């Protein structure tokens, strides 16, 4: 069970984030999936593929050369932990600020709960503060 769960999460990152295949969202994410820890219009969880697609579009348009590389993938039961590195160049205005041309590099961890061959719930912990600093949305902290 864990190896197929692993394949679902790896495929999600490869197809959705790496290749920009929106159809993979419908295939790999349950209709009622709850995704936590990502910026959303109302500040809450993103629920379902239709609500997740605009986030993916916005992020991929801001960083069209987006690359995600897995450091660690750990599976236990129906949970898959995906620790990764995210790089790209801020080329689009889709973060609410003009394209800066800045290279970004952040790390993050996603925990996905898989049931019935689909992602049912996801918890995200990415270093968005560093990303926002790298594109000029926040000032760099001095002394660090």
UniProtKB/TrEMBL annotation:
Signal peptide: none annotated. It comes from the Bacteria. InterPro entries: Cyclase_SnoaL-like, NTF2-like_dom_sf. It holds the Pfam family SnoaL. Coiled coil: none annotated. This is Ester cyclase.
């Amino acid at each position: 069970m864990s190896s197929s769960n692993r394949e679902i999460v790896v495929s999600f990152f490869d197809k959705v984030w790496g290749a920009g295949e929106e159809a993979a969202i419908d295939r790999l994410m349950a209709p009622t999936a709850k995704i936590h820890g990502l910026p959303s219009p109302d500040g809450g969880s993103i629920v379902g593929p239709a609500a997740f697609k605009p986030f993916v579009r916005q992020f991929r348009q801001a960083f069209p050369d987006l690359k995600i590389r897995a450091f660690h993938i750990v599976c236990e039961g129906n949970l898959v932990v995906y620790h990764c590195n995210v790089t790209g160049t801020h080329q689009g205005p889709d973060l609410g600020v003009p394209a800066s041309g800045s290279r970004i590099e952040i790390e993050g961890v996603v925990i996905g709960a898989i049931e019935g061959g689909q992602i049912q719930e996801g918890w995200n912990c990415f270093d968005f503060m560093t990303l926002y600093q790298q594109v000029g949305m926040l000032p760099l902290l001095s002394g660090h």
